[in-house]
Amino acid sequence: MSTLVIVESPAKARTIRNYLPSSYRVEASMGHVRDLPQSASEIPAAVKGESWAQLGVNVDADFEPVYVVPKDKKKIVTQLKEALKDVDELILATDEDREGESISWHLYQLLKPKVPTKRMVFHEITEEAIKKALKNCRNIDEQLVRAQETRRILDRLVGYTLSPLLWKKIAWGLSAGRVQSVAVRLLVTRERQRRAFHEGTYWDLKASFSKEKPPFAAQLVTLAGTKIANGSDFDATSGQITAGRNVLLLNEDQAVALKERLTGKTWSVTDIEERPVTRKPSPPFTTSTLQQESNRKLRLSARDTMRVAQNLYEQGYITYMRTDSVHLSDQAIAAARSCVEKLYGQQYLSPQPRQYTTKSKGAQEAHEAIRPAGSSFRTPQETGLGGRELAVYDLIWKRTVACQMADSRQTQITVQLQVEDAGFRSSGKRIEFPGYLRAYVEGSDDPEAALEDQEVILPNLKVGDHPNCTELEAVGHETQPPARYTEASLVKTLESEGIGRPSTYASIIGTIIDKGYAHLVSNALIPTFTAFAVTDLLEKHFPDIVDPSFTSKMEQTLDDIATGEAKWLPYLQQFYLGEKGLETLVKERESEIDATTARTVELENLDAKVRIGKYGPYIEVENGDGVITASIPKDLTPADLDPKQVEVLLRQKITGPDQVGRHPETGEPIYVKIGAYGPYVQLGDKTDENPKPKQASLLKGVTPETVTLEMAVGLLALPRTLGVHPGTGGKIQASLGRFGPYVVHDQGKEGKDYRSLKVADNVLTISLERALELLSEPKKGRSSTNSKSKAALRELGTHPDDGETINIYDGPYGPYIKHGKTNVSIPEGQTVENITLAEALNLLSAKASTAKSTRKTSKSTSSKSKSTAKSSTTATKKKGTEG
């Protein structure tokens, strides 16, 4: 008896093949094989004339979806149908969640198998798990499929109804989404809070006792019995002490005077408190907590984390990575406890096996937390993994093992000291038994927060002791605005609010960045002015869509549909076609929304208007001579746009750019200007004879006010030739690029070798010797634009014609396939994991043939364009004369 097993990806298929008899044929569907139409060209001819055709959902006939097979999946469906002809049984073995259930259902509908068909699910790809799953096959869960279909339809209705409205009223290419728009609003709300923030200043004293063993420090907390103000006592919107707080606010003069008064006086220990504290390990990872911790500790985006986790799962290293559950199987608990005992000893094992329960009601679709696969856990060193895969596996292994370890026992120590009428406090921590901290310490969203395993030792003091203060200093502090969201803190907020599914957070955050709603800078998600405009429009006209509580209730209803507690059709009818349904609201509000108003961002304490234009955001003010506009540089955030910044941008437009001086050799003026990409220097004026005067960006940390003539001349002289490489004779230059200053070694046919400069290096003065030193260092991460230096996301194999490697790399516009000098993007719907070598060869071949035909066409049309130039010019002149 022969059996066809269908999974999603080739990697998963390769792993599963190892555990099945030879009579089983395992093929990959490459993800979804059927979906709602993604473009007008995919809409079937039979429904193209219908009013609902663009939606891909017949809202007039019980929301019946129109499913199509995308062009790039037709070949795969044909191959699967052919494979099905030669077997006696079909097993659909897609992932165990709603998405996987949906893929299996679509495969069944498309393939129409005439042989017995089973649904097989498993939580990990190990021999034991696969054999067990084979014995426990079931039917497709129609309820889960319906819940996923409802979710897909709902997302389509929201996106395809609101997005066209945003195109008309704000800018082409924008998008709205059921979860995406709420996430964007969270970013915008935080940025508004930063704009409204007013800094508060306060002072206190710090005492150092360096002669004690060990040395320690103490901070001023009271004066004459009154608490000293700290950051938590300030109102963020006024910068003043919050009303009703009975605290003493010290300024600099008062703090310095107090320091002088207390210097040399006798210190006394007035109280010592020791409090035992027990800390328990965190539960094993869910999708959400893995994304958060990976972002905090490894600086990986949610998208990259899921990509790496998918690879680990498909290779059999971890269990399924899309889960809301913190539950561990008995097998997993036994494996974790075995690791603890073997690596750390019996005393580090928790007295009883720990079992965690999931609080989320919607956590029914996965059986276990994310953990190392198998009945015994491979240590990270035993896996043979490297790079990101090793780092993520290491996180998962440590977190799982730690959850079965003993509690950490600590003692918190607080020492109160008195000097005259001033009270000081010193805090310490003694770790009595590290417990799980031996294996794992959870990261923090606060970069300044101390990790729990950091012991702070205080000397063995007693009440009545008189420690010797060796230094007393007055210290000034400023309150800080609310921190912007990181990917980790945004994911945490979305999950805690019950918005969306953790398995979708990676793609949602990716879309927010791709659509220009946020920039990712130093791990912070900074919303753009476009995000402000879109959020303003939705808040005013469609408040429910961006209301976290409304979206959370919607998510709960979708979960209830999955369990049969709610009916899908009445819900969709009410949401979309009801009296206050989305379609009704859009029809009512479209005529009310003024496009000019929608493109205007109102910012507090700013007289200038911010508008969203075709080429990006700009400021607009009216003066006696009319309206003046100026582009807003891309690195200027909404929270930082203040009247002073507006004045600088407008002054350039009104009075012209500031002149630094004249070039010592050419005599041309050198200007400092501010453009869309920030400040830069320009040599000479823009004229018909000189349409593109030379320009150079300023170095990081240099402001227009601090630019000198010497610096400007140096920047305009870039790239600087430093000399030749002693080994190759190739030219070595220093210059400034997209990612900052760098040196480059021209290796001729071998290409160019780049290195970024260090913080201490200056591109204007760096020597040949220093450049050679940098070039001798190994490359790191993405510091080079040469793809040869990048780590490949996947290695597909070698090209049959020339033997050169074919790899997949991560580029600024997403992943792409590279062979020699030919690059081709991965088609929509495909992923890094499911592209095969054969498909890559087809894509590269198509790209090569297109390039050839384009070159031929351009050659043949160039002569035509020259010959028609005269006649078109004549026609234009005639038309102008007639007009």
Could you walk me through the main structural features you see in this protein, from its secondary elements to its overall organization?
Monomer. Residues 141-583 form the Topo IA-type catalytic domain. Its EC number is 5.6.2.1. Pfam families: Topoisom_bac, Toprim, Toprim_C_rpt. Residues 859-875 have a biased composition (Low complexity). The protein is an alpha+beta fold and 883 residues long. Helix content is 35%, strand content 21%. It contains 23 helices and 32 strands. The longest helix has 46 residues, at 837-882. Mean pLDDT is 87; it is low at 361-366, 445-453, 781-789 and 853-883. The termini are far apart. The radius of gyration is 32 Å and the shape is globular. The strands form 8 sheets. Strands 7, 8, 9, 10, 11, 12, 13 and 14 form an 8-stranded mixed sheet that branches. Strands 2-1-5-6 form a 4-stranded parallel sheet, sandwiched between helices.
Number of DSSP strands?
Answer: 32
Uncertain segments are 361-366, 445-453, 781-789, 853-883
Which bin fits the share of residues in helices?
Answer: 25-40%
Instruction: Report the major sheet.
Output: 8 strands, mixed
Structural class: alpha+beta
Question: Ends: how far apart?
Answer: 82 Å
Please tell me how large the radius of gyration is.
Answer: 32 Å
The tally of helices reads 23
Beta content: 15-25%
| pLDDT averaged residue by residue | 87
Shape category: globular
Catalytic activity: ATP-independent breakage of single-stranded DNA, followed by passage and rejoining
EC number: 5.6.2.1
Region (Interaction with DNA): 175-180
Site (Interaction with DNA): 32, 151-152, 155, 160, 167, 322
